Amino acid sequence: MSGNDAQSSVDRRTKPRSPAFDKLMAEMVADQAPRVFAVVLEFGEQTDAQIVAWGMTLDGGAYMTTVDGRNQFVLAEAENALRYVPSRSNITPHIVWATPGADG
What we know:
2 helices
């Protein structure tokens, strides 16, 4: 195996970063990371549940995709995801945040 593949060439040309800059980048990513949520259907009164979609919020809105990937939605806010879940008796849709304490 040769060491001349594209990735190893890039790695050799990259100057080492300072730990301070690495910390700055990590803080920037943490501050701007999207919040992840799931749309969960509750069947009956806490009888069973199923995740039917995953989404994420950014400063400008939210995005959601069904778990099978067939449907994708651009939303003004995460709570609007519930509008796209079929309404049926004895089934209650919920937004559940993947990160505890995330309030949307």
